[in-house]
Amino acid sequence: MYKLIDKIFDTVIKLLTLFSLLILVFIIIFILKESTVFFKEVSILKFITGRKWNPLKSPTDLSILNIILGTLYVSFIAIIIALPIGVGTGLLLSVYTNGRWKTVARGIIDILAGVPSVVYGFMGLLIIVKFFETAFDFPTGESILAGGVLLSVMILPYIISTCSETMDNIYKENLFSSEALGTSKIYMARKIVFPESKKGIIAAVILALGRAMGETMAVMMVIGNAPIPPKLFGRAQTIPSLIALEMGMVEVGSLHYHALFASGLVLMIMLLIINIIFYYIRRGIHA
Amino acid sequence: MSENIKELLFKIWIILSGATVLFLTLFIFGYIIKHGFQSINTEFIFGNPKGIPLGAEGGVLPAIMGSLFLTVIACAFASLLAISTSIYVVYYCMSKKIENIIHIIIQCMAGIPSIVLGLFGYTLLIVNLRLERSLLSAGITLGIMIFPFIQVRVEKAFREASSTIIESSYALGVSNSYTFLRLILHMCKFEIVSAITLAGGFAMGAAAPIILTGAVIFAPVPKSLLSPVMALPFHLYILIGEGISLEKAYATALVLISLLLVINIVSMILIFRKKGAN
Are the beta carbons of B21 and A109 separated by less than 8 Å? Predict the structure, then answer.
Protein backbone atom coordinates (compact mmCIF):
# COMPACT_ATOMS: atom_id res chain seq x y z
CA MET A 1 0.00 0.00 0.00
CA TYR A 2 2.67 2.48 1.06
CA LYS A 3 4.71 1.42 -1.92
CA LEU A 4 1.83 2.33 -4.20
CA ILE A 5 1.33 5.78 -2.63
CA ASP A 6 5.06 6.32 -2.83
CA LYS A 7 5.14 5.41 -6.47
CA ILE A 8 2.26 7.75 -7.28
CA PHE A 9 3.92 10.53 -5.28
CA ASP A 10 7.23 10.05 -7.09
CA THR A 11 5.58 10.10 -10.48
CA VAL A 12 3.48 13.17 -9.70
CA ILE A 13 6.52 15.11 -8.49
CA LYS A 14 8.52 14.15 -11.57
CA LEU A 15 5.70 14.99 -13.96
CA LEU A 16 5.05 18.37 -12.36
CA THR A 17 8.76 19.22 -12.45
CA LEU A 18 8.95 18.26 -16.09
CA PHE A 19 5.87 20.36 -16.80
CA SER A 20 7.33 23.43 -15.06
CA LEU A 21 10.52 23.17 -17.05
CA LEU A 22 8.64 22.66 -20.29
CA ILE A 23 6.85 26.00 -19.78
CA LEU A 24 10.04 27.83 -20.77
CA VAL A 25 10.35 25.67 -23.88
CA PHE A 26 6.72 26.42 -24.74
CA ILE A 27 7.22 30.15 -24.25
CA ILE A 28 10.21 30.15 -26.58
CA ILE A 29 8.50 27.95 -29.19
CA PHE A 30 5.29 29.98 -29.28
CA ILE A 31 6.97 33.37 -29.46
CA LEU A 32 9.38 32.01 -32.10
CA LYS A 33 6.54 30.48 -34.12
CA GLU A 34 4.59 33.74 -34.30
CA SER A 35 7.76 35.67 -35.13
CA THR A 36 8.94 33.46 -37.99
CA VAL A 37 5.83 34.44 -39.96
CA PHE A 38 7.08 38.02 -39.75
CA PHE A 39 10.68 37.20 -40.56
CA LYS A 40 9.56 35.53 -43.77
CA GLU A 41 8.30 38.94 -44.94
CA VAL A 42 10.94 41.21 -43.46
CA SER A 43 14.56 40.16 -42.95
CA ILE A 44 15.87 40.03 -39.37
CA LEU A 45 18.67 42.43 -40.25
CA LYS A 46 16.28 45.02 -41.60
CA PHE A 47 14.02 44.58 -38.58
CA ILE A 48 16.71 45.37 -36.03
CA THR A 49 18.75 47.93 -37.99
CA GLY A 50 16.01 49.96 -39.63
CA ARG A 51 14.77 53.07 -37.89
CA LYS A 52 11.19 53.45 -39.07
CA TRP A 53 8.19 52.04 -37.21
CA ASN A 54 4.97 52.94 -38.92
CA PRO A 55 2.43 50.13 -38.91
CA LEU A 56 -0.40 52.28 -40.30
CA LYS A 57 1.33 53.26 -43.54
CA SER A 58 1.00 50.96 -46.48
CA PRO A 59 3.28 49.22 -47.22
CA THR A 60 4.15 49.19 -43.53
CA ASP A 61 7.54 50.17 -42.13
CA LEU A 62 8.32 47.85 -39.27
CA SER A 63 11.85 48.24 -37.89
CA ILE A 64 12.75 48.69 -34.29
CA LEU A 65 16.29 50.07 -33.92
CA ASN A 66 15.02 53.29 -32.33
CA ILE A 67 12.93 51.30 -29.92
CA ILE A 68 15.80 48.97 -28.96
CA LEU A 69 18.01 52.02 -28.37
CA GLY A 70 15.27 53.64 -26.30
CA THR A 71 14.98 50.51 -24.14
CA LEU A 72 18.75 50.39 -23.54
CA TYR A 73 19.09 54.13 -22.97
CA VAL A 74 16.42 54.35 -20.29
CA SER A 75 17.81 51.26 -18.54
CA PHE A 76 21.35 52.62 -18.43
CA ILE A 77 20.18 55.95 -17.02
CA ALA A 78 18.29 54.06 -14.33
CA ILE A 79 21.34 51.98 -13.39
CA ILE A 80 23.66 55.00 -13.27
CA ILE A 81 21.32 56.69 -10.80
CA ALA A 82 20.44 53.63 -8.72
CA LEU A 83 23.82 51.92 -8.44
CA PRO A 84 25.59 54.24 -5.94
CA ILE A 85 22.52 54.39 -3.70
CA GLY A 86 21.94 50.65 -3.91
CA VAL A 87 25.56 49.69 -3.15
CA GLY A 88 25.70 52.16 -0.26
CA THR A 89 22.52 50.78 1.26
CA GLY A 90 23.77 47.23 0.76
CA LEU A 91 26.93 48.06 2.75
CA LEU A 92 24.89 49.73 5.46
CA LEU A 93 22.61 46.71 5.79
CA SER A 94 25.36 44.08 5.87
CA VAL A 95 27.74 45.83 8.23
CA TYR A 96 25.52 47.80 10.56
CA THR A 97 22.37 45.75 11.00
CA ASN A 98 21.81 42.34 12.51
CA GLY A 99 19.15 40.09 13.95
CA ARG A 100 15.65 41.50 13.97
CA TRP A 101 16.68 44.83 12.46
CA LYS A 102 18.05 43.04 9.47
CA THR A 103 14.75 41.21 9.02
CA VAL A 104 12.84 44.49 9.30
CA ALA A 105 15.16 46.20 6.80
CA ARG A 106 14.73 43.24 4.42
CA GLY A 107 10.98 43.59 4.87
CA ILE A 108 11.12 47.27 3.89
CA ILE A 109 13.16 46.42 0.80
CA ASP A 110 10.64 43.67 -0.08
CA ILE A 111 7.78 46.14 0.33
CA LEU A 112 9.54 48.62 -1.96
CA ALA A 113 10.03 45.85 -4.51
CA GLY A 114 6.37 44.93 -4.17
CA VAL A 115 4.93 48.33 -5.05
CA PRO A 116 3.10 47.68 -8.34
CA SER A 117 4.60 49.24 -11.43
CA VAL A 118 1.31 50.94 -12.26
CA VAL A 119 1.50 52.80 -8.96
CA TYR A 120 5.08 53.82 -9.76
CA GLY A 121 3.96 55.00 -13.18
CA PHE A 122 1.09 56.94 -11.66
CA MET A 123 3.39 58.73 -9.23
CA GLY A 124 6.03 59.27 -11.91
CA LEU A 125 3.45 60.97 -14.08
CA LEU A 126 2.19 63.19 -11.28
CA ILE A 127 5.54 64.05 -9.71
CA ILE A 128 8.52 63.55 -12.04
CA VAL A 129 6.88 64.47 -15.34
CA LYS A 130 5.09 67.43 -13.78
CA PHE A 131 8.33 68.58 -12.16
CA PHE A 132 10.17 68.60 -15.51
CA GLU A 133 7.33 70.51 -17.10
CA THR A 134 7.14 73.24 -14.48
CA ALA A 135 10.73 73.49 -13.24
CA PHE A 136 12.57 73.33 -16.57
CA ASP A 137 9.81 74.59 -18.79
CA PHE A 138 10.03 71.59 -21.12
CA PRO A 139 7.30 71.38 -23.72
CA THR A 140 6.69 67.88 -22.43
CA GLY A 141 8.03 66.26 -19.30
CA GLU A 142 7.59 62.80 -20.78
CA SER A 143 11.14 61.80 -21.59
CA ILE A 144 13.94 59.25 -21.29
CA LEU A 145 15.17 61.09 -18.21
CA ALA A 146 11.77 60.85 -16.49
CA GLY A 147 11.66 57.13 -17.32
CA GLY A 148 15.23 56.66 -16.07
CA VAL A 149 14.62 58.40 -12.76
CA LEU A 150 11.45 56.42 -12.17
CA LEU A 151 13.07 53.13 -13.16
CA SER A 152 16.02 53.82 -10.86
CA VAL A 153 13.64 53.80 -7.88
CA MET A 154 12.06 50.59 -9.12
CA ILE A 155 15.35 48.67 -9.53
CA LEU A 156 16.86 49.86 -6.23
CA PRO A 157 15.44 46.94 -4.22
CA TYR A 158 16.94 44.40 -6.65
CA ILE A 159 20.36 46.06 -6.49
CA ILE A 160 20.24 46.26 -2.70
CA SER A 161 19.23 42.66 -2.12
CA THR A 162 21.70 41.19 -4.62
CA CYS A 163 24.55 43.31 -3.22
CA SER A 164 23.83 42.69 0.43
CA GLU A 165 23.58 38.94 -0.16
CA THR A 166 27.26 38.89 -1.20
CA MET A 167 28.29 41.50 1.33
CA ASP A 168 26.71 39.56 4.21
CA ASN A 169 28.85 36.53 3.39
CA ILE A 170 32.04 38.54 3.11
CA TYR A 171 31.29 40.32 6.37
CA LYS A 172 30.66 37.07 8.22
CA GLU A 173 33.80 35.44 6.81
CA ASN A 174 36.01 38.28 7.97
CA LEU A 175 34.26 39.27 11.17
CA PHE A 176 36.39 37.10 13.44
CA SER A 177 39.80 38.25 12.20
CA SER A 178 38.63 41.81 11.99
CA GLU A 179 37.43 41.82 15.58
CA ALA A 180 40.63 40.17 16.70
CA LEU A 181 42.61 42.98 15.08
CA GLY A 182 40.33 45.55 16.65
CA THR A 183 39.38 47.36 13.45
CA SER A 184 36.34 49.58 13.36
CA LYS A 185 33.19 48.63 11.46
CA ILE A 186 33.56 51.48 9.01
CA TYR A 187 37.14 50.45 8.23
CA MET A 188 35.99 46.93 7.59
CA ALA A 189 33.16 48.11 5.36
CA ARG A 190 35.50 50.31 3.33
CA LYS A 191 38.63 48.16 3.12
CA ILE A 192 37.25 44.64 3.07
CA VAL A 193 33.56 44.30 2.32
CA PHE A 194 33.32 46.92 -0.43
CA PRO A 195 36.34 45.88 -2.54
CA GLU A 196 35.67 42.16 -2.05
CA SER A 197 32.08 42.38 -3.24
CA LYS A 198 32.92 43.53 -6.77
CA LYS A 199 31.43 40.40 -8.32
CA GLY A 200 28.26 40.80 -6.34
CA ILE A 201 27.92 44.37 -7.53
CA ILE A 202 28.40 43.29 -11.15
CA ALA A 203 25.74 40.61 -10.66
CA ALA A 204 23.42 43.25 -9.22
CA VAL A 205 23.96 45.52 -12.21
CA ILE A 206 23.16 42.71 -14.62
CA LEU A 207 20.03 41.66 -12.75
CA ALA A 208 18.89 45.28 -12.55
CA LEU A 209 19.54 45.77 -16.26
CA GLY A 210 17.27 42.81 -16.99
CA ARG A 211 14.55 44.16 -14.72
CA ALA A 212 14.77 47.63 -16.20
CA MET A 213 14.62 46.44 -19.79
CA GLY A 214 11.57 44.31 -19.17
CA GLU A 215 9.61 46.87 -17.19
CA THR A 216 6.37 47.74 -18.94
CA MET A 217 3.70 49.80 -17.26
CA ALA A 218 5.66 52.42 -15.33
CA VAL A 219 7.94 53.26 -18.23
CA MET A 220 5.06 53.32 -20.67
CA MET A 221 3.28 55.95 -18.59
CA VAL A 222 6.15 58.46 -18.42
CA ILE A 223 8.22 58.01 -21.56
CA GLY A 224 5.92 59.49 -24.16
CA ASN A 225 5.84 56.48 -26.50
CA ALA A 226 7.17 57.91 -29.74
CA PRO A 227 9.35 55.61 -31.87
CA ILE A 228 11.93 58.30 -32.68
CA PRO A 229 15.69 58.30 -32.04
CA PRO A 230 16.02 58.55 -28.25
CA LYS A 231 17.36 61.75 -26.66
CA LEU A 232 17.77 62.35 -22.95
CA PHE A 233 15.13 65.08 -22.80
CA GLY A 234 12.92 63.76 -25.57
CA ARG A 235 10.18 61.19 -25.89
CA ALA A 236 11.05 57.64 -26.79
CA GLN A 237 9.60 54.16 -26.91
CA THR A 238 10.65 50.87 -25.29
CA ILE A 239 9.91 47.37 -26.54
CA PRO A 240 7.60 46.37 -23.64
CA SER A 241 5.58 49.57 -23.93
CA LEU A 242 5.34 49.10 -27.70
CA ILE A 243 3.83 45.64 -27.21
CA ALA A 244 1.49 46.67 -24.41
CA LEU A 245 0.18 49.68 -26.30
CA GLU A 246 -0.26 48.22 -29.76
CA MET A 247 -1.22 44.61 -29.05
CA GLY A 248 -4.73 45.65 -28.11
CA MET A 249 -5.49 47.20 -31.47
CA VAL A 250 -3.96 44.79 -33.96
CA GLU A 251 -5.82 42.23 -35.94
CA VAL A 252 -4.78 38.67 -35.06
CA GLY A 253 -2.66 37.30 -37.90
CA SER A 254 -1.75 40.61 -39.50
CA LEU A 255 1.87 41.54 -40.23
CA HIS A 256 1.74 44.14 -37.45
CA TYR A 257 0.62 41.39 -35.01
CA HIS A 258 3.56 39.20 -35.95
CA ALA A 259 5.92 42.19 -35.81
CA LEU A 260 4.96 42.70 -32.15
CA PHE A 261 5.80 39.06 -31.43
CA ALA A 262 9.10 39.58 -33.24
CA SER A 263 9.92 42.55 -31.00
CA GLY A 264 8.97 40.41 -28.01
CA LEU A 265 11.38 37.79 -29.30
CA VAL A 266 14.21 40.33 -29.60
CA LEU A 267 13.57 41.51 -26.04
CA MET A 268 13.37 37.95 -24.74
CA ILE A 269 16.64 36.92 -26.37
CA MET A 270 18.43 39.93 -24.89
CA LEU A 271 17.06 39.11 -21.45
CA LEU A 272 17.83 35.38 -21.70
CA ILE A 273 21.47 36.25 -22.43
CA ILE A 274 21.55 38.71 -19.54
CA ASN A 275 20.08 36.13 -17.16
CA ILE A 276 22.46 33.38 -18.18
CA ILE A 277 25.39 35.75 -17.55
CA PHE A 278 23.84 36.62 -14.17
CA TYR A 279 23.50 32.94 -13.30
CA TYR A 280 27.16 32.19 -13.99
CA ILE A 281 28.47 35.25 -12.14
CA ARG A 282 26.35 34.40 -9.12
CA ARG A 283 27.42 30.79 -9.18
CA GLY A 284 31.02 32.00 -9.32
CA ILE A 285 30.45 33.97 -6.13
CA HIS A 286 28.88 31.15 -4.18
CA ALA A 287 31.16 28.38 -5.40
CA MET B 1 43.40 63.01 0.81
CA SER B 2 43.98 61.72 4.30
CA GLU B 3 42.49 58.44 5.42
CA ASN B 4 40.25 60.18 7.91
CA ILE B 5 38.53 62.28 5.30
CA LYS B 6 38.11 59.29 3.02
CA GLU B 7 36.58 57.37 5.85
CA LEU B 8 34.23 60.21 6.65
CA LEU B 9 33.14 60.52 3.02
CA PHE B 10 32.55 56.79 2.87
CA LYS B 11 30.44 56.97 6.01
CA ILE B 12 28.41 59.87 4.62
CA TRP B 13 27.87 57.96 1.39
CA ILE B 14 26.45 54.82 2.96
CA ILE B 15 24.33 56.69 5.49
CA LEU B 16 22.91 58.97 2.81
CA SER B 17 22.11 55.98 0.62
CA GLY B 18 20.26 54.24 3.40
CA ALA B 19 18.43 57.45 4.27
CA THR B 20 17.43 57.91 0.62
CA VAL B 21 15.92 54.44 0.46
CA LEU B 22 14.06 54.93 3.71
CA PHE B 23 12.84 58.33 2.56
CA LEU B 24 11.66 56.96 -0.80
CA THR B 25 9.70 54.18 0.89
CA LEU B 26 8.04 56.56 3.34
CA PHE B 27 7.41 59.10 0.60
CA ILE B 28 5.75 56.62 -1.77
CA PHE B 29 3.46 55.25 0.91
CA GLY B 30 2.85 58.62 2.52
CA TYR B 31 1.93 60.20 -0.79
CA ILE B 32 -0.58 57.52 -1.75
CA ILE B 33 -2.06 57.26 1.73
CA LYS B 34 -2.40 61.04 2.13
CA HIS B 35 -4.11 61.60 -1.23
CA GLY B 36 -6.03 58.34 -1.20
CA PHE B 37 -7.65 58.94 2.17
CA GLN B 38 -9.28 62.11 0.94
CA SER B 39 -11.29 60.29 -1.69
CA ILE B 40 -11.89 56.87 -0.20
CA ASN B 41 -15.09 55.83 1.54
CA THR B 42 -17.15 52.70 2.07
CA GLU B 43 -19.15 53.30 -1.08
CA PHE B 44 -15.90 53.27 -3.05
CA ILE B 45 -14.84 49.93 -1.62
CA PHE B 46 -18.22 48.18 -1.81
CA GLY B 47 -19.74 49.81 -4.90
CA ASN B 48 -19.67 49.13 -8.61
CA PRO B 49 -18.02 51.60 -10.97
CA LYS B 50 -20.50 54.12 -12.35
CA GLY B 51 -20.59 57.35 -14.28
CA ILE B 52 -19.60 58.40 -17.75
CA PRO B 53 -16.88 57.58 -18.63
CA LEU B 54 -17.16 54.46 -16.53
CA GLY B 55 -15.17 54.73 -13.31
CA ALA B 56 -15.63 58.47 -12.86
CA GLU B 57 -18.01 57.71 -10.02
CA GLY B 58 -18.89 54.73 -7.87
CA GLY B 59 -16.52 52.12 -6.51
CA VAL B 60 -14.15 49.30 -7.28
CA LEU B 61 -15.62 46.18 -5.66
CA PRO B 62 -15.44 44.06 -8.86
CA ALA B 63 -11.80 45.07 -9.31
CA ILE B 64 -10.92 44.15 -5.71
CA MET B 65 -12.62 40.77 -6.02
CA GLY B 66 -11.10 40.23 -9.46
CA SER B 67 -7.62 40.94 -8.17
CA LEU B 68 -8.09 38.59 -5.22
CA PHE B 69 -9.37 35.77 -7.44
CA LEU B 70 -6.50 36.27 -9.89
CA THR B 71 -3.99 36.16 -7.05
CA VAL B 72 -5.45 32.95 -5.61
CA ILE B 73 -5.41 31.20 -8.99
CA ALA B 74 -1.89 32.38 -9.76
CA CYS B 75 -0.61 31.26 -6.34
CA ALA B 76 -2.30 27.87 -6.54
CA PHE B 77 -0.92 27.19 -10.01
CA ALA B 78 2.56 28.48 -9.25
CA SER B 79 3.05 26.95 -5.82
CA LEU B 80 2.02 23.47 -6.92
CA LEU B 81 4.66 23.56 -9.65
CA ALA B 82 7.24 25.37 -7.54
CA ILE B 83 7.05 23.02 -4.55
CA SER B 84 7.21 19.93 -6.77
CA THR B 85 10.20 21.30 -8.65
CA SER B 86 11.96 22.16 -5.40
CA ILE B 87 11.34 18.68 -3.98
CA TYR B 88 12.71 17.18 -7.16
CA VAL B 89 15.83 19.36 -7.18
CA VAL B 90 16.65 18.90 -3.50
CA TYR B 91 15.66 15.30 -2.78
CA TYR B 92 15.40 13.38 -6.05
CA CYS B 93 17.93 14.81 -8.41
CA MET B 94 21.25 12.99 -8.02
CA SER B 95 23.11 14.53 -10.91
CA LYS B 96 24.78 17.89 -10.44
CA LYS B 97 24.46 18.50 -14.16
CA ILE B 98 20.67 18.17 -14.25
CA GLU B 99 20.43 20.35 -11.17
CA ASN B 100 22.42 23.06 -12.92
CA ILE B 101 20.25 22.86 -16.02
CA ILE B 102 17.11 23.20 -13.91
CA HIS B 103 18.58 26.22 -12.16
CA ILE B 104 19.47 27.90 -15.45
CA ILE B 105 15.97 27.26 -16.77
CA ILE B 106 14.41 28.80 -13.69
CA GLN B 107 16.77 31.79 -13.82
CA CYS B 108 15.76 32.31 -17.46
CA MET B 109 12.08 32.08 -16.61
CA ALA B 110 12.56 34.66 -13.89
CA GLY B 111 14.14 36.92 -16.48
CA ILE B 112 11.38 36.78 -19.05
CA PRO B 113 9.65 40.16 -18.98
CA SER B 114 6.04 40.10 -17.89
CA ILE B 115 4.84 41.57 -21.16
CA VAL B 116 6.36 38.67 -23.11
CA LEU B 117 4.56 36.30 -20.75
CA GLY B 118 1.43 38.22 -21.63
CA LEU B 119 2.13 37.64 -25.33
CA PHE B 120 2.70 33.96 -24.64
CA GLY B 121 -0.50 33.65 -22.63
CA TYR B 122 -2.37 35.40 -25.39
CA THR B 123 -1.14 33.20 -28.22
CA LEU B 124 -1.31 29.89 -26.30
CA LEU B 125 -4.40 30.26 -24.13
CA ILE B 126 -6.56 32.63 -26.11
CA VAL B 127 -5.65 32.21 -29.77
CA ASN B 128 -4.78 28.49 -29.71
CA LEU B 129 -6.76 27.00 -26.82
CA ARG B 130 -9.71 29.40 -27.28
CA LEU B 131 -10.08 30.11 -23.56
CA GLU B 132 -11.33 33.68 -24.17
CA ARG B 133 -9.99 36.58 -22.14
CA SER B 134 -10.82 35.22 -18.72
CA LEU B 135 -9.99 34.81 -15.07
CA LEU B 136 -8.40 31.45 -15.83
CA SER B 137 -6.07 32.55 -18.61
CA ALA B 138 -4.97 35.69 -16.76
CA GLY B 139 -4.46 33.69 -13.56
CA ILE B 140 -2.31 31.09 -15.30
CA THR B 141 -0.21 33.78 -16.97
CA LEU B 142 0.38 35.43 -13.60
CA GLY B 143 1.19 32.02 -12.15
CA ILE B 144 3.93 31.49 -14.72
CA MET B 145 5.28 34.91 -13.76
CA ILE B 146 5.59 34.11 -10.03
CA PHE B 147 6.62 30.45 -10.36
CA PRO B 148 10.41 31.14 -10.36
CA PHE B 149 10.08 33.51 -7.41
CA ILE B 150 8.38 30.87 -5.24
CA GLN B 151 10.63 28.05 -6.45
CA VAL B 152 13.86 29.84 -5.49
CA ARG B 153 12.64 30.59 -1.97
CA VAL B 154 11.12 27.18 -1.33
CA GLU B 155 14.26 25.43 -2.54
CA LYS B 156 16.31 27.56 -0.18
CA ALA B 157 14.00 26.61 2.70
CA PHE B 158 14.35 22.89 1.88
CA ARG B 159 18.12 23.16 1.79
CA GLU B 160 18.24 24.90 5.14
CA ALA B 161 15.92 22.38 6.78
CA SER B 162 17.71 20.09 9.18
CA SER B 163 18.94 17.05 7.31
CA THR B 164 19.32 14.85 10.42
CA ILE B 165 15.55 14.36 10.75
CA ILE B 166 15.24 13.51 7.08
CA GLU B 167 18.16 11.09 7.17
CA SER B 168 16.80 9.40 10.28
CA SER B 169 13.46 9.12 8.59
CA TYR B 170 15.00 7.33 5.63
CA ALA B 171 17.13 5.18 7.93
CA LEU B 172 13.96 4.03 9.69
CA GLY B 173 12.54 3.00 6.36
CA VAL B 174 9.81 5.64 6.34
CA SER B 175 8.37 6.10 2.88
CA ASN B 176 9.27 9.02 0.61
CA SER B 177 5.79 10.48 0.48
CA TYR B 178 5.36 10.38 4.27
CA THR B 179 8.74 12.04 4.81
CA PHE B 180 7.86 14.90 2.50
CA LEU B 181 4.26 15.47 3.44
CA ARG B 182 4.61 15.04 7.19
CA LEU B 183 8.19 16.05 7.99
CA ILE B 184 9.67 18.34 5.37
CA LEU B 185 6.56 20.35 4.58
CA HIS B 186 5.93 20.69 8.30
CA MET B 187 9.44 21.97 8.99
CA CYS B 188 9.34 24.48 6.16
CA LYS B 189 5.70 25.56 6.32
CA PHE B 190 6.41 29.12 7.48
CA GLU B 191 8.92 29.80 4.72
CA ILE B 192 6.68 28.25 2.09
CA VAL B 193 3.60 30.24 3.09
CA SER B 194 5.68 33.40 3.35
CA ALA B 195 7.12 32.89 -0.14
CA ILE B 196 3.66 32.26 -1.58
CA THR B 197 2.09 35.33 0.02
CA LEU B 198 4.95 37.54 -1.13
CA ALA B 199 4.62 36.17 -4.66
CA GLY B 200 0.87 36.71 -4.42
CA GLY B 201 1.60 40.37 -3.82
CA PHE B 202 3.63 40.53 -7.02
CA ALA B 203 0.86 38.84 -8.94
CA MET B 204 -1.75 41.19 -7.55
CA GLY B 205 0.19 44.29 -8.58
CA ALA B 206 1.13 43.17 -12.08
CA ALA B 207 -0.76 44.73 -14.96
CA ALA B 208 1.34 43.89 -18.00
CA PRO B 209 0.58 40.14 -18.22
CA ILE B 210 -3.17 40.58 -17.77
CA ILE B 211 -3.75 43.41 -20.24
CA LEU B 212 -3.64 40.88 -23.05
CA THR B 213 -5.01 37.84 -21.28
CA GLY B 214 -8.04 38.75 -19.24
CA ALA B 215 -8.41 42.17 -17.68
CA VAL B 216 -11.24 44.30 -19.03
CA ILE B 217 -12.43 47.83 -18.39
CA PHE B 218 -15.66 46.69 -16.83
CA ALA B 219 -16.98 43.33 -15.69
CA PRO B 220 -19.08 42.28 -12.71
CA VAL B 221 -17.53 40.17 -9.94
CA PRO B 222 -16.51 37.02 -11.89
CA LYS B 223 -18.95 34.12 -11.56
CA SER B 224 -16.90 31.42 -13.26
CA LEU B 225 -13.32 30.74 -14.21
CA LEU B 226 -14.10 31.65 -17.79
CA SER B 227 -15.57 35.09 -17.22
CA PRO B 228 -13.52 38.22 -17.85
CA VAL B 229 -12.35 40.16 -14.79
CA MET B 230 -11.55 43.64 -13.61
CA ALA B 231 -8.27 44.02 -11.76
CA LEU B 232 -7.04 46.87 -9.57
CA PRO B 233 -3.77 47.64 -11.39
CA PHE B 234 -5.46 47.64 -14.79
CA HIS B 235 -8.33 49.76 -13.46
CA LEU B 236 -5.79 52.25 -12.09
CA TYR B 237 -4.03 52.35 -15.43
CA ILE B 238 -7.28 53.05 -17.27
CA LEU B 239 -8.28 55.76 -14.80
CA ILE B 240 -4.99 57.60 -15.40
CA GLY B 241 -4.33 56.66 -19.01
CA GLU B 242 -7.74 57.80 -20.19
CA GLY B 243 -7.72 60.74 -17.78
CA ILE B 244 -11.01 59.66 -16.20
CA SER B 245 -10.61 60.70 -12.59
CA LEU B 246 -7.52 61.58 -10.59
CA GLU B 247 -9.39 61.35 -7.33
CA LYS B 248 -10.58 57.80 -8.02
CA ALA B 249 -7.08 56.90 -9.18
CA TYR B 250 -5.63 57.93 -5.81
CA ALA B 251 -8.26 55.90 -4.01
CA THR B 252 -7.66 52.84 -6.22
CA ALA B 253 -3.90 53.12 -5.64
CA LEU B 254 -4.56 53.28 -1.88
CA VAL B 255 -6.71 50.14 -1.96
CA LEU B 256 -4.06 48.28 -3.97
CA ILE B 257 -1.19 49.43 -1.76
CA SER B 258 -3.11 48.53 1.42
CA LEU B 259 -3.79 45.01 0.18
CA LEU B 260 -0.10 44.61 -0.66
CA LEU B 261 1.00 45.99 2.72
CA VAL B 262 -1.23 43.47 4.49
CA ILE B 263 0.27 40.68 2.40
CA ASN B 264 3.83 41.81 3.10
CA ILE B 265 3.24 42.18 6.81
CA VAL B 266 1.70 38.70 7.02
CA SER B 267 4.74 37.31 5.24
CA MET B 268 7.10 39.15 7.60
CA ILE B 269 5.24 37.94 10.71
CA LEU B 270 5.52 34.36 9.46
CA ILE B 271 9.29 34.68 9.15
CA PHE B 272 9.48 36.25 12.63
CA ARG B 273 7.45 33.39 14.12
CA LYS B 274 9.75 30.87 12.51
CA LYS B 275 12.78 32.64 13.94
CA GLY B 276 11.07 32.83 17.31
CA ALA B 277 10.31 29.10 17.30
CA ASN B 278 13.93 28.16 16.73
Answer: yes
